Amino acid sequence: MATAEGWFYAADEDSARLAAGHTATAVSAFQHHFSAEVPFGAVILSAALPPQARDAFQNGHALPWVRVWASPAEKSTLLRENLRRTQPELSAAAVEQLVSRASLSTGDVLPHEIGHSLYQARFWPGQTADGSLHYATPAPDWLDEAAAILMEPSPMLAERRQQYRALLSAPSPHVQDLPGFLQAPHPMDAARRAALSGNGSSSASGLTVMVARGDTGAALAAFYQQSLALADFLIERSGRADVLGQISLALANGQSFDDWLAQSGPPLQLGGDVATLTQHWQAWVKALTPPTQQAPAQ
Whole-angstrom Cα distance, residue 285 to residue 294? Predict the structure, then answer.
């Protein structure tokens, strides 16, 4: 099916319509936070489409972005296979419980992935990240991830915000100070992706379902939560819903974040350097939690 946002392909009309709805939600959020100019693209729900076929389709139709994603049934199958192989101690009932719980969030994940596609197509067309330096695009990893997280449905965003406040209630090695976080690599860096991919369940489309546990899982969750928190802070402090779009455009045009901050930070009440921005950030973070639960400011 086709809409104003793109083309949608799936095994059945209901699934295609669902993908179109998620894309419309992501596009609306993208326009609000990043840019009124939203690239037209396509979503293909298939775990069987080879990457070469995807690339041929995208190039043949001159589409700025194409997101290939597994249908809910396909993703459940891949997750089930992964859990049985990597956690053989789990009972069949426990596996099915985890699969069922994950299936409830499948729809929530698609807008996030579409957000990554929209962000790259709008600000970094034709560019991919250096895997040793950045996660998905040449943008800082926190900004790349915030672009996707802000496309998620409101209940999912509310849960991430609540989890971040809980994370602040006690010292955590995964909560980083602001100067460090601005430069921090994504926890799922090239080495960890490779390690998890080796234990993941892959489809013909190249989609790999991986389960991050322990310290890796905690670091990943905290990175997502702090990326959203930083986005919230910048939006609230500046009074501009599109401040991340302003930053992204500047970076895409060759400015550094420090250069952008020196030029645009003062009129947006952010300060002209990272030290001043950090002071505002610490005050904002401190206000998130009751005094009895506050850990040292980060």
Answer: 9
CB half-sphere exposure, 14, CA atoms < 13 A:
2
Is 212 a domain residue? Answer: yes
Residues near 287 by beta carbon (within 8 Å), at least 6 away in sequence: none
Establish if 11 belongs to a structural domain: no
Domain range spanning residue 236?
72-293
Q: Give burial (CB, 10 Å; 0-12/13-18/19+) of 194.
A: exposed
Number of structural domains (the chain) is: 1
Assigned domain for 2 exists: no
- Cβ-count burial 200-224 (b if 16+ within 10 Å, e if not): bbebebebbbbbeeeebebbbbbbb
Which parts of the chain register pLDDT below 70?
102-108, 128-135, 189-214, 290-298
pLDDT digits (tens, 9 = 90+) for 177-225: 999 999 999 887 645 555 544 454 455 555 555 555 567 778 889 999 9
